[in-house]
């Protein structure tokens, strides 16, 4: 498989994973959906890094970074709640 084909396949796979995580977040089916969304955003940014000189890549990378920044407080809260519950502090959680 040529490099471009492999690259496109990786981007499409991550895109599908992003859509899946987003759907799970909307449906509130599990507590890992936001985590998975953030992981896949980082994967996209990693895949785009070698292409950063190409016009149009910078706004996409910045948008993904902004989503990461915006979701950090919520994810931190999710992790804290899970840890409090695991330690038996259900009232605080």
From TrEMBL:
Specify one Pfam family. CHAD
Alphabetical list of Gene3D superfamilies matching this protein: CHAD domain (1.40.20.10)
Superkingdom as given in the UniProt entry: Bacteria
List each copy of the CHAD domain by range. 18-87
Descriptive protein name: CHAD domain-containing protein
- Please name the taxonomic classification of the source: Bacteria, Pseudomonadati, Pseudomonadota, Gammaproteobacteria, Pseudomonadales
